[in-house]
Design brief:
Length: 383
């Protein structure tokens, strides 16, 4: 009995040490969060590019050559995206600012009277739309002043400018070295794992990598394809803000129903404000209908599959919680941590289902009970 008590105390102390170590790591990450962002982002880029590097190595190229090819391809993709998207989005935002008076007039002179007529409710008496619109315009106009103030503060703060430039300059360098030494990093981490737990850790790491890879690689491609498809489709319909609405709908695709729903609402409003007929509204609905069919039957099954296991609500909560705790660094770490936690929870559930607490002292047989005779008993009449 005394030996059992000592074992329990020793086990409790070991768990307490692990908990203290975890809190210490959490505190250290919180302190170093302002300088860890480029390292974490570079680590994620290296993790995404490592499978392609391994594939080139298996094709006969050296590690340095494969890393150089993959790194160059990633840099060209990012540069092309910046050169194409930044001016395009800037023009779309300028068009939106110019169109704001038309949206105001449509909302106050068309949408509100239509709703009041259908619902027989005087909405305009409850809300002062003129005051709300003036407040919105004042805040929108003050955005330029806020941006100017912020840029002025950054220009006056030499350390902030130096830190920003250093992070941008260090990102490709750190990514290249992480990508080159990725296999060595994995081997060094694996060498620190206790040998008794190595099979379990390998299994959990492989599952976490599959889940996160399916989400980041597959879902990013789905978002990109749908954003381009929606943007071009709405542009073909004739919407001035079609590309901006399509990109927004594509970015929100990782949450089921939110991406297409937001795109349809914004597209229908833009069509009604710009044209005021149902033909262009029907065009918007056709664009999103075709996009949903392609996503459901082609893109998601081919690119994402069914290995994600991350619920959309969990994704949103992880991103918001990470941003609240660690800022931009937390948003970068949110999805990897959520994927690992999801795998660990599944493993804990599996262990729990095999534990004595769940099974009990006398476990029931897992074999199904087969009932062969289902005829009701015959009641005998009393003699």
């Amino acid at each position: 009995m005394q030996s059992q008590a000592l074992d329990d105390i020793a086990r409790f102390l070991r768990r307490l040490q692990w908990a203290a170590l975890g809190l210490g790591v959490f505190w250290l990450i919180w302190l170093l969060a302002p300088i860890l962002s480029p390292f974490v982002f570079a680590l994620m880029l290296a993790w995404l590019g490592d499978p392609l590097v391994d594939r080139l190595e298996r094709a006969g190229r050296s590690r340095n050559t494969a890393v150089t090819l993959v790194f160059t391809m990633m840099a060209l993709i990012v540069l092309a995206a910046l050169l194409i998207l930044v001016p395009l989005i800037e023009r779309q935002i300028a068009t939106l600012i110019e169109s704001l008076p038309h949206y105001r007039d449509w909302f106050m002179l068309t949408a509100v009277p239509w709703v009041e007529q259908r619902l027989r409710v005087e909405i305009s008496e409850w809300l002062d739309f003129g005051h709300l619109w003036q407040l919105l315009r004042d805040n929108w106009d003050s955005a330029g002043g806020v941006a100017t103030t912020l840029l002025g503060y950054l220009s006056r703060s030499g350390f902030a400018v130096i830190g920003l430039v250093a992070n941008v300059a260090l990102l490709p360098i750190i990514t290249f070295f992480f990508l080159r030494d990725w296999d060595n990093l994995v081997e060094r981490v694996a060498s620190l794992i206790p040998r008794d737990h190595l099979p379990t850790v390998n299994r959990l790491a492989r599952e976490s990598s599959d889940v996160l890879g399916a989400f980041l690689r597959g879902q990013f491609l789905v978002m990109l394809v749908l954003g381009v498809m929606y943007g071009l489709g709405l542009w073909a319909v004739g919407l001035d803000l079609g590309i901006l609405i399509g990109l927004i709908a594509g970015l929100l695709t990782f949450v089921p129903y939110l991406g297409p729903a937001s795109g349809i609402i914004l597209g229908v409003i833009a069509a009604l404000v710009q044209y005021g007929d149902w033909q262009h509204v029907a065009g918007v609905l056709v664009v999103f209908g075709i996009g949903q069919v392609i996503e459901s039957y082609v893109l998601t099954p081919k690119l994402v599959g069914d290995r994600i296991g991350l619920h959309p609500v969990a994704v949103i909560f992880a991103v918001l919680a990470g941003g609240q705790l660690f800022g931009f660094l937390g948003m970068l770490l949110a999805l990897p941590v959520a994927a690992v936690v999801n795998v660990l929870l599944r493993y804990a559930q599996e262990r729990y289902r095999h534990s004595r607490l769940y099974v009990g002292e006398h476990p029931l047989s897992d074999e199904p009970v087969i009932i062969t005779d289902v005829t009701p008993p015959v009641e005998r009449k009393p003699e």
